[in-house]
Amino acid sequence: MTTEETVALVTGANKGLGLETCRQLARRVITVLMGARDIELGRDAAGRLKSEGLTVEPVQLDVTRADHIAQIGSVIETRFGRLDILVNNAGMIHPEESLFANSSEQISLQALRETFEVNFFGQVALTQALLPLIKKSPAGRIVNVSSILGSLTLHSKESSEATQIKPLAYDASKTALNQFTVHLAASLNRTPIKVNAAHPGWVKTDLGSRRAPMGVEDGAKTAVRLATIGPDGPTGKFFHFNEEVPW
């Protein structure tokens, strides 16, 4: 994939993994639109990257709001005419849940719905809305930032490290996002577009906590690699760094 005049959109971009993903993409001479629910936080984050000499621009984007999705699509079409890279990074864990507890006996339906709105329905809605612009790219790339906690294969193994980490709403939303990845890749398999899911690892972020062993610099690498893979790269797969993760 060439980086000349390449345009990327990263959601949830004002902090953590999203911010670092923007930094690493922009270092590859990619113009990066930084999606943030709070535009002021987005401007502050973009200012930090601009001070590093990087080409980034903050845009207001709450993936659960149809008006924001329509607006960003209009902006991209008017200014660039296409979108080369979409990194669906925005995500949440509900206050009712903890990464380190099984919530399946007590999680409320409201918490499930709110989690899915951000982690699944918002990702699907944004991707579908922007797909016509991605199809105009000579080498469109869609990366869904998932989690190893969305892997049913690993959750069902007693020896897996995921055995004790079962926040139902979060995990189920990532499993659904994985399914969307597989289905969309199959739908687009006759096009140059590649669709993959990325497991960043257990990263020191607001979600991952300070207990996490990885920094955001390493955490962003998988999504950046998948966002910039060449024409012979994979599609419809789930990766952590270069290692394929089981669905």
UniProtKB/TrEMBL annotation:
The source's domain of life comes to: Bacteria
Q: Which InterPro entries match?
A: CBR1-like, NAD(P)-bd_dom_sf, SDR_fam
Q: List the Pfam families.
A: adh_short
Q: Name one GO molecular function term.
A: oxidoreductase activity, acting on the CH-OH group of donors, NAD or NADP as acceptor
Which of UniProt's keywords are assigned here? NADP, Oxidoreductase
Say yes or no: keyword Oxidoreductase present.
yes
Family, per entry: Belongs to the short-chain dehydrogenases/reductases (SDR) family.
UniProt protein name: Short-chain dehydrogenase
